[in-house]
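Troubleshooting entry. The earlier prediction with GMT gave an output that would not parse, so I re-checked the input for stray whitespace and re-submitted. Clean input:
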Amino acid sequence: MNIGIVCYPTYGGSGVVATELGKALAERGHKVHFITYRQPFRLDSFHKNLFYHEVGSSNYPLFEYPPYETALAGKIVDVARFEGLDVVHVHYAIPHASAAFMAKQILATKGFSLPVVTTLHGTDITLVGKDETISPVVTFSIEQSDAVTTVSEWLKQETIEHFKVRKPISVIPNFIDFGRFKKLDKAHFRKAIAPDGEKVLIHTSNFRKVKRIGDAIRTFDIVRREIPAKLLLVGDGPERQSAEKLCRELGTCEHITFLGKQDAVEELLAVSDLFLMPSESESFGLAALEAMACAVPVISTNTGGLPEINRDAETGFTANVGDVETMAARALDLLRDDSKLSGFREAAYEQAWSFRIENVLPMYEAVYEQVTADVAAA
Ligand code: GMT
């Protein structure tokens, strides 16, 4: 098939999922056209079936806010017509689903049909999409999509309840490419990070408020007062400054390394003992699943779709949002008992294995086939 993928190209769950999906589809022989404003950061190597179409923006002085949605709709029309797209798959509803709807309408006036598949990822529903001014557009574009998927059962329920969507929604979970995420032997690297055999905790995110980086630091601070430990903070974003300030206030900076944005996150996970995800809200928690694929158990909150990934007392532990004492106590339970930790490592890996890309990709292919058949029959 000839598939258009619209996504955010930046560090962030939905862009990562969209890019990895596109790469895997290309491997299976589909032609995949990424349509976005910058080359997706994980689209880093050549493949004969992968194409990138940049959405330009107009700097006309009248525009305080350059009309990205219009430019995107126009680009989708262009790529659909001249590359012969069979389907366009948009990741993150805002503004991708409404731009795709507009493109579809424009194409229809020219005698072309373009089925639209929308995948909802999280904050497009739980946070940004709930904004009163945006919400009618989100509801409309979900209803108008030819197929809608969510990354967790929880997000599906949230979408139905909040947006009163009547359209059927399929749950297609996020996935892991085990060609990339695997147990790596990085003993020398671990020695550099934890020279005296300290336990290594890790958190990776885009450092937005919803991630509660402060709770990761507070949890770690309780842990390292009990046992020698180090914390790796991977990523960057608006909360970085306040996170650094908190380290100073707690006097724990020498035990924490801010690594900034890193591409080879699997190498950092390979030297880690526990992953911290104290998020306020998380529709899926892809970063936690990536850790589990590297056999790193997860201490997370029990919010949103996280319990669908992180099984309490099995692949890690879950606690209420903000309950850093419980998160630290559970972390210490594991870090003090090597044999327990190794059982949890195994369970985390097994759980991640059930989300391997080979299981999930056919679900998307089935959706593409269904919508193209439906549109052709209409
Ligand atoms: O919050 C982020 O990390 C970014 C956001 C996005 O859409 O770019 O992530 C959401 O989508 C990810 C991929 O499906 C999920 O793993 C994250 O749980 C989800 N984030 C939230 O729900 C806060």
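This one parsed fine. The chain has a mean pLDDT of 94.
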